[in-house]
Each structure stands twice: as C-alpha cells, then as structure tokens.
Design a protein that fits this description.
By secondary structure, this protein is an alpha+beta fold. It is about 40% helix and about 20% strand. The strands form 2 sheets. The chain has a 7-stranded mixed beta sheet, with helices on both faces. The protein has a two-stranded antiparallel ribbon with strand order 2-3. The protein starts with a helix and ends in a 7-residue tail after the last helix. The model has no long low-confidence stretch (mean pLDDT about 90). The protein binds 3,4-dihydroxyphenylalanine.
Length: about 350
C-alpha cells in the first residue's frame, strides 16, 4: 500500500510538472484527487487493512493529498502568470501605427452663403425666421396680393399638392406669416432663408432652389432705407466695388417694385459672356411693401410702411464661387463639394 501511494505521488507530481495549461492541470487534479481519482480509490480500499495499519495509511494518504494539492496550487499560479502574459502580448496595441484618417465633411456652398448673410443681417438687428416648405395657397399667394386667377401667378410654375396646399415657390410666403404671427403689430425686421420649388429644370434652374427674403416694417420706412440696405448687402457679398442699378419692375406684393442689377464682377462692367455684354447682372427683386399686403396682414398702411426684397441663394453661390451649372449644387457629388473644404 505504501509503495502504491509512493508511486501515485511520483507519477502525479511528474504530470503536474508537465501540465502545459490550466485545463491540463485540472485534468491531472481530477485524475488523482477527484471523486473517482487514484487517491480516493486508495482510501476506499482501506476497509481491507488491519486496524493497526489503517491510521498509518490514512495519515499517509492525507500527507500525499496535501502535497499534491500544494503542488497543483503552485503550478496553477505559475500557469496563470504565463497565460496572462500571453493574453497581454496578443492584445498589445502598437501606438506607433499610423491612425485611420478621419474623413471630414465640408460646408455646402449654399450654407456658406446663408451663414454669411445671417451674420450680416443679424449684425444690423434683423431676426432670422423660418417658414414651412409645404405652404398654403393663402400664404404663398393670396396674402401677398395675388388672388386666385391673377395673371402674375403664371410667372411661377407651382407644384400643387392639393388645390390648397403647394410647395412654396417663394420665401415671400414667410412675409405674410411673420406679419400675421405678430399679434401686437409691432415693427418687423427679418430675413428668411429657405428652400423653394418650381417646375423648372435646366442649367440655370433647378426644381428645388434656395431663396432669401428680407422684410422691414416700421413707421417712416422709405425707398432710401431699401437702397442703403441692398447696397450693404450686395457689396458685402460680391465686393466693395460693386455698383447697383434699380430698374422699375412689377411684383404684386410691392409698389413701387424694382429689379436690382449689380455691375458685372467678372469684367467690371465692360461686357463679357457672364453679363451677356451688358455690364450688368440681375441679382434680386425688391420694392416697398404694397399697402394691400400690409392691410391684409393686419398692419395699418397709414401708420406703417416697409420694404421687402428677395433673391436666389443659388445665383449668389454661382456668382461668388464661379459655378456654371446650378444642378451641381444639388447633386451631392463629393468631388464638387470637397472644393469648398476651406478652414474658415
Ligand atoms: N418672390 C420674388 C420671386 O421669387 C422675389 C421678390 C421680389 C421678393 C420682390 C420680394 C420682393 O420680397 O419685394 O421672384
């Protein structure tokens, strides 16, 4: 019996020593110390021993068991350190590797124009307001002095959704909203940039385009205020040397109405392909708010007067950045957009 125990001890210790990982070590533990293990078997066989032998062998079994347990524990600690090192090695981060390049977007040229205009007009005390793109006939036309059947409606090819709802053809619709929303009928000074829609589609027209509207209402507002404001606006956007020309025109919501031309910034007014040899480029529509519009939207024309103007953001972007096809502004081609990736 003693000899058998001695043999078990030697082979078990050898196997513990040779265990290459924690799993193998556990298999060795089960093989010798488990319920059906070699040492347990020896204990079971003790019934056959004489009463004198039993305590001696029992004591011996316990000593071997303790020795093996200690050997396993020691080996376990050793293997744990090895496995941890292996794991750390495999998860090591090489901080010298170059990083994955972060792809930065760029501001769309139309948004650049909007931000520039907002900064300018806010610095002059204007508010920036929004309106719905799905508009009603009432706000897009009727409240702007364009009753149903008015011939000037033909100037704008409208996308009607129902007979009452439409995609707004002009940001002028926001004029009526701002006036109607102002319950106390106090003075107004706003700009409204936004998307507009018409049934057009060629190199200089897109079915969706951007406009910005300006509206000022107060006591004593005159044409001089309109001219001064537009001069600041155009010079800021297209250069200090720009000259303005006011041409009488017709819009149903203003009286008098003007189309405003700017001296050609490409040829300086001499005549070129951009200005079609005229030296001038049409840039916006404007005028003094029609008394009917004031009245219809709750403002007393005897007390108040105002001016309004509206222009295409796409046209401004095309002039400012030399873009020849308006559809490029809406195609989301990154090769086009990346050209506007400046640091400012
Ligand atoms: N809404 C006009 C258009 O889309 C532009 C315009 C003209 C706006 C005169 C105005 C204005 O506010 O006074 O063609």
């Amino acid at each position: 019996m003693k000899e058998k125990l001695e043999n078990i001890k030697i082979t078990a210790k050898e196997e513990i020593k040779n265990a290459i990982d924690l799993q193998k070590l556990d298999e060795v533990r089960v093989k010798y110390l488990g319920k059906k293990g070699a040492l347990t078997e020896v204990l079971r066989g003790m019934g056959a021993l004489s009463p004198e032998e039993r305590p001696i062998i029992g004591g011996l079994v316990n000593t071997v068991k303790e020795e093996l347990e200690n050997a396993i524990k020691e080996k376990e600690e050793e293997l744990e350190v090895i496995e941890l090192n292996k794991k750390l090695e495999s998860e090591k981060i090489d901080i010298t590797l170059p990083s994955v390049k972060v792809k930065r977007g760029s501001k769309h040229p139309i948004n650049r124009i909007i931000e520039e205009l907002e900064d300018l007009f806010v610095s002059m005390g204007y508010d920036v307001v929004d309106g719905p793109e799905l508009e009603t006939d009432e706000y897009c036309f009727e409240r702007l002095n364009l009753p149903k059947g008015h011939p000037a409606r033909d100037m704008q090819d409208t996308f009607y959704v129902t007979t009452e709802y439409l995609l707004r053809t002009q940001t002028s619709a926001v004029q009526a909203r701002v006036m109607m929303d102002n319950i106390e009928k106090t003075p107004i000074r706003v700009i409204c940039p936004g998307k507009t829609y018409r049934r057009d589609d060629d190199a200089t027209h897109s079915h969706q385009f951007g406009q910005i509207e300006g509206l000022v209402i107060d006591e004593g507002i005159s044409l001089a205020h309109l001219k001064g404001t537009l001069e600041v606006f155009v010079k800021h956007m297209l250069g200090e040397d720009s000259k303005l020309r006011f041409r009488p025109s017709y819009f149903p919501f203003t009286e008098p109405s003007y189309e405003v031309d700017v001296s050609c910034f490409k040829c300086g007014g001499k005549g070129c392909n951009l200005c079609k040899q005229t030296g001038w480029i049409e840039i916006l529509g404007s005028g003094m708010v029609h008394p009917n519009v004031l009245k219809m939207n709750g403002y007393d024309p005897k007390k108040y007067s105002g001016f309004a103007f509206g222009t295409g953001l796409d046209r401004l972007a095309m002039f400012k950045y030399g873009i020849t096809d308006i559809r490029l502004l809406y195609a989301n081609d990154v090769r086009f957009l990346n050209q506007f990736d400046r640091k400012d």
